[in-house]
Amino acid sequence: MMRKFVGLDGIKGLALVAIVAYHCTQGRLPGGFYGVDVFFTVAGFVMAASMFRKLFRKGKLNYVRYAQRRLARLYPALLLAVTAMVTFAGLFDRDALVNISGQVLSSLTGWYNWHAIIGGQSYFDQLTPQLLRHLWFVGVLLQFYVVLPFVVWVMWRLRATRFSVAVPLVLAAVSGTLMWVLYQPGGDPTRVYFGTDTHSTGLMLGVAFAWCVCTYEYNHYRPVSQPVNASANLTSPARQAAQSMQPLPAAQSHLQPPQPPSGMSVAVAPALGFIALMMLCTLCFCGKQDDFAFRGGIILASICSVALIAGTISVNSWMRDLMLFKPLAALGRHSYGVYLWHWPIWIIVSAVLGKGNPRNNGWVLAVTLVLTALCSAISWYLLEQPIARHSTSYAIFPYPVSPEENKILQILRAVLVDVLVVVAMIGCARAINDAPGKTQMQIQLEQQSHKLERGRKQTQGGQPAKPVQPAKPEQAKPAEQKSAGKVQPKHPKHVAPTGNQMTAIGDSVMLASADGLGAVFPGIDINAEVSRSMAVASQIAQADAAANNLRQWVVVGLSTNGYVTVEQLDQLRQQLGDDRVMVLVNAHGDRAWIGVNNQMFADYVNSHAGNTVLVDWDAMANQHLDQISSGDGIHPVIGSDIYAQAVKQAIDGWIAAGH
């Protein structure tokens, strides 16, 4: 018997907690996406170690058997989860069915990640989340499982040269370099995050570490009957076979590898593993989807994952005892099912209970976790476990296997599985057939966009609008500068603007609020588009200035779709000039970057108070949750003026403070 790598389930459990928390409570764990790289590293290590051990024992691999086992492990649960969740979406959240046919097909054929890249889907734009978007991870794994036998074969062929480990290390370096080079700062990182070529560093580092562990094992064979401390007195055939990197002779098949090295490694490996765990926790709690993540952060997380594995599998490691915590280990053992179910359940439950009200967030999370546990358990006990113990055919038709199994219960289980799969597939087909082409919010925003564009053309009449000269600060009269020892009130430098003095540059939240802005500020020039970010703000302002359309008061609402940097605000501030007033609107929602952006906006306004106004849209939205879309919890309902009122109140308060 081969020694089992104890503790890896606990590592997978921790990684799964990070991923689920990132998906469902992004603001609390903004770097939880690093858990994916822990999973990748563990997956690469486990699969490669299994193949290397077979090669050292038998000298060859059964690739057909390998493919059958991988498909049996991954595909039945995937098929049930995909078809069932699409069926539920057809019943409870039809907006989630937009573009669902391509998602289903690519998910079940193992290339969802490339489907998302080619189709322009953004993993990090969650305003209209895709129901099966999380299955990009399964696609990368399936593609890795296709490539892994070839990598292992090359390594095995090079075993006599001692350069075998260089193969996965070079592939890991190439993958990390591609991510670094192809990533565009300030752009959408989906291409480098979803790409199998750019996100394989952890997988290949896991393969490299598996080779190191397995070669150590088989360089230190010992007979089963001998104690561990007698491993130095190995039989000559075993030592010769190991040192020559050849498979063991059949006569020596009773030999098994020893425990990992003892001595200094007993203390050093767990200590390094603990340090790696702390670094991974820091990345999860403090990380962001920024330049660091895609230019070093993901590589660092993969390296830390290798160190964590090394510290956990070491003999007598206290880190291993930590990872054997039963709830954590149980979560790791069922991590695949939990991962498959949690995201689409979160999407559907959020739609049913409503995202707009923060008071519902706790209930949404609780219901999601309960339903995820229930669906994962059903999939495991009815489908995955019988397949793992016997075969795929046994899951749907329980032929006699062993006398201790209750035949009646197995028949009932198989009938239930058959009914569930058939109903899910029929429901999935019907949902795909009835799927809408666009979400309701998308339809409304497109209508708003067309309406806004027509209004701008009519207002400008095809001619550039006359620029509005910035108002000069009012000068105090000489008589007012002197008084009989009395402190004179501070006179404001500005007066409340009218609409024809205001330019508004924003995203879909501003677009949804266009009617309200036009009502509160008649004549305001609104330039708003879906999925727009702060990265394009200065270019838009520059174009408006060149066309003489940039007015004195510039309202900027571009913090909903990603992180905003101080450099971007400084660049926009420079483009506007010191005489114009920049009105910064913060964001409302449950995305990881929103809280960070809102705090940064507050700090920026404090340091630029003379010509910058902060609009606390987040506070206004929380006060009027009945006017926030329950579909995404971000956009105000079309026709609402609460966004415009937030802008007006902020400007009035800023002027009243003496500006």
Per-chain topology:
Layout: H1 8-24, H2 35-58, H3 63-92, H4 100-108, H5 112-119, H6 136-157, H7 166-182, H8 190-194, H9 201-218, E1 222-223, H10 236-243, E2 255-256, H11 264-286, H12 291-313, H13 318-323, H14 326-333, H15 335-353, H16 361-389, H17 392-396, H18 407-433, H19 440-460, H20 478-481, E3 502-506, H21 508-512, H22 514-520, E4 525-528, H23 537-546, E5 553-557, H24 566-576, E6 581-585, H25 592-607, E7 612-615, H26 617-623, H27 642-656
Parallel strand pairs: 3-4, 3-5, 5-6, 6-7
Antiparallel strand pairs: 1-2
Helix pairs in contact: 1-2, 1-14, 1-15, 2-6, 2-9, 2-12, 3-4, 3-15, 3-16, 3-18, 4-5, 5-6, 7-9, 7-12, 9-12, 11-12, 15-16, 22-27, 23-24
Describe the protein's architecture and organization:
The protein is mostly helical and 659 residues long. The chain is 60% helix and 4% strand. The protein is built from 27 helices and seven strands. Strands 4-3-5-6-7 form a five-stranded parallel β-sheet, sandwiched between helices. α3 packs antiparallel against α16. The longest helix is centred in the first third of the chain and has 30 residues. The relative contact order is 0.11.
In short:
Helices cover 60% and strands 4% of the residues.
- The first-to-last residue Cα distance is 78 Å
Q: Which bin fits the share of residues in helices?
A: 55-70%
Gyration radius (Cα, Å) is 30 Å
The major pleated sheet works out as: 5 strands, parallel
Global structural class: mainly alpha
Number of helices: 27
The count of DSSP E runs of length 2 or more, i.e. the number of strands, is 7
Quaternary structure: single chain
Mean pLDDT: 86
**Strand order within the widest sheet?**
4-3-5-6-7
Portion in beta strands: under 5%
Unreliable spans: 223-243, 250-255, 462-485
- The outline comes out as globular
